[in-house]
Recover the amino acids of this structure.
């Protein structure tokens, strides 16, 4: 079974907990910002909540374990409620990835804070290893969602941000060919071509973001 799963079996509970939190925070952020800009669509559909059940997409979740990437159930957004659709659209789109970046940063701060308070000194070797493993998985998954969702492919947040930044003629063309973009994206992530294109970029992005976070936060606690 291990050969079909991207994560070691003993880490699956940590991955599940991390995913539930990461996906929930991500989609709640989209719904919250949209609601603040006047769009009640997500709120009316029960998506303005921190209940993971409202946000989990079965296929997107399974792919995390198999392929190392995935998605939650997209939050519905009705741009007609926005006074400034482009600005609101950008902020709604960027809210999801930023929420994952913040979640990763908070986890790193919490880990170093607990370490500096001596909380981990009473833990045995296996318990300490489990705690470190959970924090590492939580941080890496949230950073992965941050980087992955900023890729400029539909239907990811990065594409939506670029779409709202474009002039109307270009935006119209993007909308016209969006379905082809989805096909291209799926082709890149499903076929071996992705191992030479999108995945190296994704891996480097995750490493860089994590490294920056640790370099910023660790010295604050003397590490």
């Amino acid at each position: 079974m291990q050969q079909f799963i991207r994560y070691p079996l003993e880490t699956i509970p940590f991955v599940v907990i991390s995913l539930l939190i990461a996906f929930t925070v991500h989609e709640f952020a989209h719904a919250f910002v949209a609601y603040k800009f006047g769009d009640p669509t997500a709120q009316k559909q029960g998506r303005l909540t921190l209940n993971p059940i409202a946000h989990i997409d079965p296929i997107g979740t399974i792919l995390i374990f198999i392929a190392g990437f995935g998605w939650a159930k997209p939050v519905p957004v009705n741009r007609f409620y926005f006074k400034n659709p482009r600005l609101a659209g950008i902020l709604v789109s960027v809210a999801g990835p930023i929420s994952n970046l913040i979640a990763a940063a908070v986890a790193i701060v919490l880990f170093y804070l607990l370490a500096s308070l001596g909380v981990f000194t009473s833990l045995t070797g296996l318990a300490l290893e489990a705690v470190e493993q959970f924090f590492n998985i939580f941080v890496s998954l949230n950073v992965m969602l941050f980087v992955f969702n900023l890729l400029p492919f539909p239907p990811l947040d990065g594409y939506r941000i670029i779409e709202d930044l474009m002039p109307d003629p270009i935006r119209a063309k993007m909308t016209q060919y969006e379905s082809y973009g989805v096909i291209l994206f799926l082709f890149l992530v499903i076929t071996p071509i992705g191992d030479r294109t999108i995945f190296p970029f994704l891996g480097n992005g995750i490493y860089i973001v994590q490294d920056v976070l640790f370099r910023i936060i660790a010295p604050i606690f003397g590490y």
